[in-house]
Amino acid sequence: ILLGLLICAPFASKAGDMYDSTLDRHFGDAPASTNAAPETAAAPMDPNVAAIVQALKAEQKIRSEGPPPPPPEPIDRATWMLLGAASLAVLLAFLKFVQWLNARIQNRRLLSKEAEEAILREKLIAEQPSLVAFFNELRFGLGTGANASVAAETAGPQLSKKEEANRLKQFFGLAPATIADFRAQLSKINRAADKAIRLELLREFFCQIDALKEKATLPELRPVWLMTCGLEGLVQQLSTTAANINPSVLRTAAGAVDLLEDLCVRGVPSDLATRTPVELLAADDNPVCLSALSMALKKAFREPDVAVDGTSGLALAEKKHYDVIFLDIEMPGMDGFELCSKIREDKMNRTTPVVFVTSHSDFNSRAKSTLVGGQDLIAKPYLSFEITVKALTLALRGRLANDKSISPPAAKENSAAPAISPQPVEMSA
Length: 429
Known about the structure:
Blueprint: H1 2-27, H2 47-65, H3 77-109, H4 113-124, H5 129-140, H6 146-154, H7 161-191, H8 195-215, H9 222-238, H10 247-263, E1 280-283, H11 287-298, E2 305-307, H12 310-317, E3 324-327, H13 336-345, E4 354-358, H14 363-371, E5 376-379, H15 384-402, H16 408-414
């Protein structure tokens, strides 16, 4: 054993020196042993040494980069239960939100009728401050509170009695010429063939109406002011597109101008339109058409009574007096013509103006409507302000005829002027 150790000792010493020399070269240290023989660049590396070097490099890389991340642990049952609970909480929160949203929608539907109508007016009225006062005054009159402040804002500056008398005298002196200009402008609009010319004439007509409205801010001229507001709103809607101009709406405008002539005289009561609310009745078997007609009337007046057929319309007309009645022609059972005839047989609304709102605008329908006691026809589709102006015109016309305080000579003098009968206007597509 000793002899073997003595023989292997030099070789073991040489191998150790080679290993130390390799480590020194790898880590840049000086040789630790003086017994190591110098190595040349061409000398091949021992395979064992190469394996050791590779192991050292791998160890060094692991230490520099850190150990690899552990593999993800499988989701246990508790985690799955936690995820399910979270999902259930989200679902419950969503259902709670849906329930809250439905409750809010129901609350909006359960608003009081006054609040609902106020929202409707805000959506439908034009962007003219005077029209807001126009609608409020027609619906509620010039009482106290908000409507009194609205009336004050539109009544113009405070004047002495002498100044007010002078302005009234000036107004009544200029009114006939102003009404004549209105009729001439309507005739130009009716004759104009070019759409651009029509729109320009409508804008001029709007300015003429606005000038008269500014002069009618005196308390004694309140009916004139209201009528000019309605006519101004109608012309404003017509000015949006030439397709809105048709014989029906021109007849409505002409009727409003005729009424203005009767209002621009001395002795007309200032509360003619507001002493009592305007009562209206609408009958149509089509729910969509009936709703549209009711909404158009609710802009300026209290909510009208509605009937879904001729029988229910007749039952309402036999119980209550109305200022104006709007009827559809084609209704199941009792149509509009028969309903109008039966209304005329009852004393409650024997003289109430009846307007047929229908798609029938031919000569036969117009002639038959006159024979059964109808006052006018409005063609579908119509502008909302056309309905408003038609109702206001006929309601004030009826109150003028029944007012005992107006002297007969004045009424006769103002009724002598002929109304405009517009010629057929070519409709655009």
